[in-house]
Amino acid sequence: MLTAHRLVVADRTGRLRLTLSARLAQIAQEHASVIDPSAPVVTCLCGFTVHARDDEKAAQLQHAHQARVGALFVESLSVTFTAAVAA
Hints:
Order of helices and strands: EEHEEEHH
Shape: elongated
Strand content: 15-25%
Low-confidence stretches: none
Largest sheet: 3 strands, antiparallel
Distance between the termini: 28 Å
Radius of gyration: 17 Å
Number of helices: 3
Number of strands: 5
């Protein structure tokens, strides 16, 4: 099923690896927001918690956290991988 949905691929040695789509989905799942309806607090599933003066500011800070996580993921990609994707 995972290979049919292209979430894993086999490398030259037969070892299964997550595809970029699967890795992005995993990061999105790990960094989903949980909003506290009674206070301007947003908690990320990774444990990062934002306490702010209002809901809008809490959401902005959580989005900034998610953007940092995304940037770190992109920076972690190998040069060989990014060159292959860009080609």
